[in-house]
């Protein structure tokens, strides 16, 4: 029998205690889960497609728990769900990507650098160290963001800088995901940068940056320095 309720109405019913609504929501959005999972399984043939479907469902469940249908200008549930399904699958892939304890001399580093190349070519060695530094910086940023920022602030920064998929979202598009205006998202974005800037990690990085360039602190906008650091790790989420 055809369902008479929209996704948004079903989510509200579930959040108000009608747990049977979750089954209908799952059925209504299984096509969305399969679509997103298929985009990843093409490039990750070492992962069972059904595992991606399962992870997508956990993302859908997270979306059901966090969606606020009664908020003014709220995004459609399908938009909100798509975001959380993608996040769940990406995090699963990061955990399941094969890792080895020892790196082969012929294993690729970055796009086209091998350790063998580095032994023969000083310039390749410099590129390798640059790659390693980016990975270290990314891990530092991930840690400090988890400590200092709210979930919403972290996700805004990650979407803005293409943290997970190398696609930089504009503020209006991010606003549609969170049910906010682009201006509100921009305000949250600036607040998040301010928190990072004022953290001990941010102050240390700023000091290091100033020493490197031999400039006084008052001559460089502090927000510019933080933006520079975030741009350095842009697009490396699935490679860590």
UniProtKB/TrEMBL annotation:
Gene3D superfamilies: 1.20.120.1810, Winged helix-like DNA-binding domain superfamily/Winged helix DNA-binding domain. InterPro entries: RNA_pol_sigma-70_dom, RNA_pol_sigma70, RNA_pol_sigma70_r2, RNA_pol_sigma_r2, RNA_pol_sigma_r3/r4-like, Sigma-70_RNA_pol_init_factors, WH-like_DNA-bd_sf. This is Putative RNA polymerase, sigma 70 family subunit. Residues 28-96 form the RNA polymerase sigma-70 region domain. GO terms for biological process: DNA-templated transcription initiation. Keywords: DNA-binding, Sigma factor, Transcription, Transcription regulation. GO terms for molecular function: DNA binding; sigma factor activity.
